[in-house]
Amino acid sequence: MTTPLRADNLPEAAAPAAPGAEQSSAPASLWVRLRPWLLLAAILLLATGLRLWQLERHALWWDEGNNAYFALQSPQRILEMSRLTNDTNPPVHRLALGLWLRLLGPTARNLRLLSVVCGVLTVPIAFYWGRRLGGPRAGLLAALLLACAPAAIYYSREAKGYPWVTLWSWTALTLLGTVTGKAARARPWGERLALWCGYVAASGLALGAHYYVLLVQLAEGLWLLARVAQEWRELRRPRLWAALGRLAPFGLAQLAILALVAPWARATWQTAYGGALAIPLESDPLAVGRYLSQMALRLVGGPNPPARPAWLAVGACAAAGALALWAALRHKQARPEAQLMLAVAVVPVLAGILVQLWATIVIARFLLFAVPALCVLAGAGLARWPRRTLPLLLALAAGWALCLPGAYAAPAPPEEDLRPLAETLAAYARPRDAVVVSYIWQEGTLRLYAPGVRARWQLGWYTDENVAGEMSGLLEKHPSLWLVSYQQPLQHPSNQAGWWLEQHAVRVLAQEQGPTRLARYAPPCAVVDPTPRAELTNGVSLAAMPVPRNARPGDVLSVGLAWGVTAALPPETTVFVQLLGPDGTLMAQADGDPQNGLAPLSTVSPGTAVQDCRALLVPADAGPGGYTLIAGMYDRASGLRVPVSQPDGASADHVLLGQIQVTAP
To answer: Average pLDDT of 440-465?
Structure first.
């Protein structure tokens, strides 16, 4: 049946020209050419906004703190600490992160910003592959899906290496698809060599950040092998060597990639594998069904998504991807691209079933590089029949809309937020101080939240045998020693550093943030002459060292006291030392039993002089003026102070230790 000729279906050369057509055709043609790129630019802005929105709302968590620590170290120190901590990651992402922080500044926002950039840059790569698979509309849909995918958004807002790995893995995929295509055979050998070198470099940057990139290379190898076998069958070549010659450059490239990573792997293999074995399992390695369902839910719906919306999104994404594959089977030109997307989306997940039997752990975020492949396939399927697939698009949008809040969830409980402790460090730490941490993630987190602190950072891995020598040496070299403990009380033998400092130094302050404790210590005071300076009505005498005349905001005031006990004291009796402002306002205090609370006066035998070294911290916001230092005793139960005997019989509830002039900082 012939189609009737009409003006609207005539060939362009035969169509009648309307007045002014020459003037309007050029702008219309320009708009048609620019429209996909303008839409892609809008999608990139959307992707950037989704990843930057409230980027600093949640505090850095342990893994991010680990990366912050490594990023601030030299390459030699990275190797040393990777061995000591049984770290499982190669160093490329952390080296890049260190360079990034040196360029932009060591802050928590900049730490996460590299992941944002990597996540956004992956979006145009999805557009490229979607366009190859199904045209501009498919490319735009693929880019839009990746821009809005909850898993991609979540990990692009986290200072970890998964967006970096995804970006460079897909850069390598793009170069591989270019250099192995039929059009590449007509390229000069120098250009093909450059493409292969780029592929090796991009794959090395990915594998040098996470070992599970090997699964991407496995997918690439299987795809290329299947493609060469298919071409060999279609051409009916009698000899295999010509077909196998197509695989030789890929094999050489894999050897080059492994050679780039081999030195690091050889140096850290045993400790890294031990660290992998120590990671808690998310599921039973033999529960294949549970493993596959978790992979599907988390790769499509993001980390810990609501089940029903996530399954809705999984179903819509799978159906759209199946349509893309079915369409590719009908169109031979798009078949290689569809096969490559399928390989990258499926092969790493299926290979993970076997890997988890050996490495014990395969988590969805390790396979984040599969998410762009899912988006490309889904975008191509949705673009193939726009009207018929509209319900699938709406189902996917609805599922993701309900999963999207999870992309902005806190990675750790609120009590793990170290920002309040960092504020204290930033306000009071001095350049000559030392900060002892229990874990490297604490140092990484605190250094980024308090970048102005110029103290010496020390990793506090001590034993009962060496803690005394290490702590004594630090107190001799530094005027103040800060201790960051985790899930351990200060006055417990399991906290070797804290337990020693509580017995041999004077605690200046102690601050708790969930399971983390920040304490500051000063060297002990000199022995105080017990000659009484004042008498209290309960039979206790007080002697004190002279107090300093001047101080500045943030200074530590060490106050040496000696309590002479002549009679047994009630158990509730304790000591106070207070710093009062010019108007009598309480500015700082050090209440409690002597020796950081370890020597209650009620347990002291009569006739004993108890040495009591106290330390008060002049507030950072203290204004200039005359401040008063007082001391005394009170009853913990009632809060009543013990009166002080006065020669003239006047009543007083404290002993005046001296006046201090606080000057401007």
So the answer is: 94
Band (11; pLDDT cuts 50, 70, 90): very low
**Closest to 484 (Cα-Cα) out of 522, 450, 446, 453:** 446
Whether the CB-CB separation of 156 and 118 falls below 8 Å is answered with yes
- Give pLDDT tens digits for 230-287: 776 666 555 556 667 678 899 999 999 999 999 999 999 888 877 777 766 554 455 7
* Residue position matching structure tokens 């993970």: 352
Residue 158 has pLDDT above 90, yes or no: yes
Calculate the average pLDDT of the chain: 89
Cα dihedral 451, 456, 460, 465, rounded to 10, equals: -170
Residues 136 and 162 in one domain: yes
- The CA distance from 302 to 296, in Å, is 9
More confident residue, 275 or 42: 42
**347: pLDDT confidence band, cut at 50, 70 and 90?**
very high
Please tell me the distance from the alpha carbon of residue 616 to that of residue 52, in angstroms, as a whole number.
42
Residue 27 lies in a domain: no
Burial code (b: 16+ CB inside 10 Å, e: under 16) for 342-373 equals bbbbebbbebbeebbeebebbbbbbbbbbbbb
Within 10 angstroms of residue 571's Cβ, the number of other Cβ atoms is 13
Give the chain's domain count. Answer: 3
Give me the residue label for tokens 């839910």. Answer: 297
Give the structural domain span for 174: 33-267+280-408
453 in the same domain as 364: no
Give me the residue label for tokens 């290329």: 224
State the Cα–Cα distance between residues 269 and 290, nearest whole angstrom: 29
- Tell which of 493, 522, 551 closes a domain: 522
Domain termination site, one of 386, 408, 430: 408
> Which residues face 629 on adjacent strands?
579, 658
Radius of gyration for the alpha carbons in the chain, expressed in angstroms and rounded: 34
Whether residue 559 is found in the same domain as residue 451: no
Residues 333 and 430 in one domain: no
* Within a domain: 527: no
pLDDT digits (tens, 9 = 90+) for 608-636: 889 999 999 999 999 999 999 999 999 99
Q: Which two tokens stand for residue 215?
A: 């699964």
CA 320, 325, 329, 331 torsion-angle sign: positive
Distance, CA of 310 to CA of 130 (rounded, Å): 23
Instruction: Sort strands 516-522 and 573-580 into parallel, antiparallel or unpaired.
Output: unpaired
Question: For 4-107, where are the alpha helices, taking DSSP H only?
Answer: 21-52, 62-71, 75-84, 92-104
* Residue carrying structure tokens 């793009």: 174
pLDDT tens column, 435-446? 999 999 999 999
Alpha carbon separation from 119 to 52, 110, 125, 510 (Å, rounded):
11, 14, 11, 40
Same domain, 203 and 320: yes
The per-residue pLDDT for 279 is 67
What sections of 135-188 are H helices per DSSP?
A: 136-148, 150-156, 162-179
Residue 346 has pLDDT above 60, yes or no: yes
Alpha-carbon distance 215 to 355, whole Å? 10
What is the pTM for the complete model shown? 0.88
